[in-house]
Amino acid sequence: MINLRLIILLFLGVGLYSCDDARVFDEYKTVSSSWEKQEKVTFNLPELDSIENYNLFINIRNNNDYKFSNLFLISEMEFPNGKIVTDTLEYEMAKPNGEWLGVGFSDVKENKLWYKENVSFTENGVYKVTLQHAMRKNGEAFGINELEGITDIGFRIEFAQNPK
Fold it and tell me: Does an H or E element contain 61, and which?
């Protein structure tokens, strides 16, 4: 009887946890054994309401093979009219003591990283977001060709305020 109650409580907890009213778009792409320097990960965004504001996030899953405490990314947002906005981003991936940031129970940690806040998509058509790593070792001019330890790259869109 106790096991049945525990199972029911577990399902209720998972059900409540999975309710996510803010989420509009959430997609992941898996990287092979290493993220190649020239490998670009592209997300085609769904058509979004032009009168809503959204918060945009980059989601990164890493494991213990990741050898750095930060992550540099180059992002491109392509608008339907062809305009491209490029940003170079830096994110902290570990605390100064080496402990991974992010959440997860195993050696895989998931980081939800701010990309843009209060964005409105006023043009009709397809928006694309492309991500590429820009990691290099200190003092070296050329970037790292094979970045190990990143397992998945994701992109998430949430309502800036919960919809009415």
Answer: strand 54-62
What distance separates the 2 farthest-apart alpha carbons in the chain?
64
Which domains occur in the chain, in start order?
22-159 (2.60.120)
Q: What is the residue-wise DSSP string for 69-135?
A: SEEEEEEEEE-TTS-EEEEEEEEE-B-TTSPBPSB-SSS-EEEEEEEEEEE---SSS--EEEEEE--
**pLDDT of the chain, 164 residues: tens digit per residue:** 555 555 555 554 454 445 667 889 999 999 988 999 999 999 999 999 999 999 999 999 999 999 999 999 999 999 999 999 999 999 999 999 999 999 998 889 999 999 999 999 999 999 999 999 999 888 777 888 999 999 999 999 999 986 55
Q: For the chain, how big is the Rg over CA atoms in Å? A: 18
Q: Nearest CA to 70 among 87, 57, 53, 89?
A: 89
The one-letter code for the residue type at 105 is F
Full-model pTM = 0.83
Q: Taking the CA of residue 89 as centre, how many other CA atoms within 13 Å lie in the half-sphere pointing to its CB?
A: 21
